[in-house]
Write a structure and sequence with these properties.
six-stranded antiparallel beta sheet, binds 4'-deoxy-4'-aminopyridoxal-5'-phosphate, D-amino Acid Aminotransferase, Chain A, domain 1, 15 strands, 8 helices, D-amino Acid Aminotransferase, Chain A, domain 2, globular
Length: 294
């Protein structure tokens, strides 16, 4: 059976799920999105993703035509319709169709698209061996130009950096901000471990505030590990004992080299391994019990 896609409140086979060529999501990357995981048939950290989606939309003055509880219910509906046990949901809101011009007043009907499918970002062995990463020359969008906190449909900044990583044979590319500090990787947040302390760049380093990042910070603190949100430079990564990346698709993935320098002994470290295990445990539990249900 064909995958069912939710579009503007209806479930349709994916071949029939379409948007206008005049949609500003297509013409200008004008829209917002979320990527969400499904584990054991349950949508993981749905509340957090829905919150971020509405925040991104607010920042670009895009009014999502359904309210948050209804959207959350639609996400669950499409997951169920596709009988997904472990999978990935892509929630997209476009500005809607308009004319050939930027003016949002001439657009109407933002499109609400929910795709439920599967995803494998990295092969299973990479979680054992770790990722090799290079620094991209493309810097992360300046927050004064387009805040990286907005998860917008315009991902060219990240794509250009990702191309550099791929060309270099690396699994990910590190992006610096305009101050030369570490921001994040093209689709993942970054953490370093040194002398038992975990550090990660703060949101004002110009990063997407990852849902997985926040979950991992909480897990680490619950395990009694100090976590600091503090500016980092590449030197902090070169001299780290351990390094790992977090993201919805990537989960917690060890990073063992940057720009040809081995991190620690070049294998995934114990804190990284423990956090990956406790993150996977959290996915099996379906999140924290204190999370509000949607
Ligand atoms: N940074 C960027 C640029 C991303 O696109 C993503 C999501 N793929 C992340 C970080 C990780 O965010 P999350 O944990 O919410 O998936």
């Amino acid at each position: 059976m064909s995958i069912q896609v939710h579009i503007n409140g209806s479930l349709v086979p994916k071949e029939q799920a379409m948007v206008s060529v005049y949609d500003h999501g297509l013409l200008y990357g004008d829209g917002v999105f979320e990527g969400i995981r499904v584990y054991g048939g349950k949508v993981f950290l749905l509340e957090e993703h829905i919150d971020r989606l509405y925040e991104s939309a607010r920042a670009i003055r895009l009014e999502i035509p359904v309210d948050a509880p209804k959207l959350a219910a639609q996400v669950k509906e499409v997951v169920e319709a596709n009988g997904l046990d472990d999978g990935y949901v892509r929630l997209v809101i476009t500005r809607g169709a308009g004319y050939l011009g930027l003016d949002i007043r001439k657009t109407s009907h933002p499109q609400v698209i929910i795709i439920a499918d599967t995803i494998t970002l990295y092969p299973a062995e990479t979680y054992e061996t770790g990722l090799l990463v290079v620094t991209a020359s493309t810097i992360r969008n300046h927050p004064g130009a387009l805040s990286p906190r907005i998860k917008s449909l315009n991902y060219l900044n990240n794509i250009l950096a990702k191309i550099e990583g791929t060309d270099a044979g690396a699994g990910e590319a590190l992006m610096l901000n305009a101050r030369g500090e570490v921001a994040e990787c093209t689709g993942d947040n970054i953490f370093v471990v040194r002398n038992g302390i975990i550090r990660t760049p703060p949101t004002d380093a110009g990063i997407l505030e990852g849902v997985t990042r926040n979950a991992v910070i909480r897990l680490a603190r619950e395990a009694g590990i100090t976590v600091e949100e503090t500016p980092l430079v590449r030197h902090d990564i070169y001299i780290a004992d351990e390094c790992f990346l977090t993201g919805t698709a990537a989960e917690v993935i060890p990073m063992v080299s940057l720009d040809g320098r081995l991190i620690g002994d070049g294998t995934p470290g114990p804190i990284t391994r423990d956090l990956l295990a406790s993150f996977r445990e959290l996915t099996r539990r379906g999140g924290w019990e204190d999370a509000e249900s949607t």
